Each structure stands twice: as C-alpha cells, then as structure tokens.
Amino acid sequence: MQPTIRYQRNSTTTFLSSTSAFVETKWQAMFEGRNEALVTLALLFISHEIIYFARCIPYLIADQIPSLQKYKIQQKTIQNTAQNQWKVFRYVLISHFVFELPMIVGFHPVAVYFGMAISSVPFPPLSKMAFQIFLFFVFEDFFHYWAHRGLHYGPFYKHIHKLHHEWSAPFGLAAEYAHPIEVMILGTGTIAGPLMWCYATGDLHLITTLTWMTLRLFQAVEAHSGYDFPWSTHNWLPGWSGAEHHDYHHMAFTNNFSTSFRWWDHIFGTNKKYLAYKERKASEAKAKKAL
C-alpha cells in the first residue's frame, strides 16, 4: 500500500514540476524581446475578457435547460432574458474598453514601482501563491464590504450604485454592469491588496496577481449568477457568500454587502433581514411539505 501511495505522490509531484516548467518557458518566451509594459497590458486585458465572458457561458447554457431551472434562486422574477443579456453584454464590453482598459494601462508602472516581479522565472511555490491569494481575498472582502455599504448611502446610491441594482434578479453577465465610478472604487479593492503586499514585503509575482484576478472574476460571476446549484461554492466551502447570499442583496436592496465571505455581514449585523427571510422561507417550505 505504501509504495503505491509513494508512487502516486511522486507522479503528482513530477507532473506539477513539468507543468510549471512548461508554463515558465512559455511565460519567458512571451516577454522575450518585447516591451514588458505592453505585454503585461495585453496579458491582463485579454485574459480578463476571456475569463469573464467564458465564466458566464455555463450559466447562459443553464438558462436553456429546463431541468436546471429548479436551482434558480428567484423563481418569480425573471430578468435573464435574451434581450436583457444582450443589453448587459454591450454595456459591459464597452465599459471594459472605455473605462477598465485605461486603468489597466497604469498597472505595470505602478506594479514595477512597488517591486512586483513581472517577467522573471521561476514562479513562486504554489503554497506561497495560495497564502498570498487568501490574504488578497480577505482584504478585498473587507474593503468591498465598506465601499459597497457606502455606495448604498443616499446620493451615492442614486447617482452611482443604482445602475448595478437595475437587476433585482441578477445573472452572471451583470457582475460588472456598473457605473464607471463604482468600477473604479470596487476595482481598487481588487488591486490594492496585491500592491500593498508587494510594497510591504517586496515579494509578489505577476503570475500570483493574475491568478488572484482570475479567481476574483470567478467569484463575482458566480455571485451574480442567480443559481444555487448543489455544487455551488458556498455549499462546500464554509463561510463563502456565493449567489444564494448575494442574490438576496439584489432582491431586497439591503443587507449582505460582502462579496466573498459572510463574516463581515455577521460581525456588523447587516445580515439580520436576510436571516429572517431565510427562516421565513424555511417555515413556508416546511408547512407546504406537511400538507
């Protein structure tokens, strides 16, 4: 038994090492002989577009499968129509080019100034990357909680955040359907964590930042998907927010201001209406089952 386990571990280690070496070679080749700032710009923007829209595809497919509609969180309010999806797609795509692309242009000089490794290899160990990304999730969640809560204040909501709340029953594409000022504010939480860490430690690689941004996009689209599948992240990762948590925020326009975790809403008491709603729905389901 032990030799078999040891062989499996060795095989896994060999596979990871060879994969890492392959990616590192391609990474070096991508930058070699080219302007590092332009390559970084292209890498970040193109990967953002591919990952964001590709992440939406499974939910677009789910919309067309009747057997999966039982997992739709809001059964009565239907906003994920083809017309609405197309409207959001156009707005988000234009927003990416007009507002997000200029912000990405400024990333490389700032990252280099703070000491981020860009084109160098080898990559950091996976354990280090995982630890740093976890810290970025925690920081971004705390930042997002307070920034998001602030955007619900009177004039900020009316003139900025209300656009995002056009959809009371959200769908994946609507994750980045927001006012440019909101994109800038909440986007700060995503990039400030890595930059602050880099400034404080001088130990961060672009590949870690890119991985973090990828996971952040996955989280954002899932939270707005409008679906609560048995395999959804919050059903197997304790404390994760997910669509079930964020969907209530869009439906009720209050509570559940955090993005990744449920901690801050619990600590600061901004989940009481949500918990009362869940309890009421559970009681209704129990009474219906008893009939």
TrEMBL record:
Transmembrane segments: 97-123, 129-147
Predominant subcellular localization, coarse grouping: membrane
InterPro entries: Fatty_acid_hydroxylase, Sterol_Desaturase_Related
Protein localization: Membrane
Molecular function GO labels: iron ion binding; oxidoreductase activity
Highest rank taxon of the organism: Eukaryota
Gene Ontology terms: biological process: lipid biosynthetic process
Pfam families: FA_hydroxylase
GO cellular component, one term: membrane
Keyword line: Membrane, Transmembrane, Transmembrane helix
Full protein name: C-4 sterol methyl oxidase
Organism the protein comes from: Linnemannia exigua
Gene: ERG25
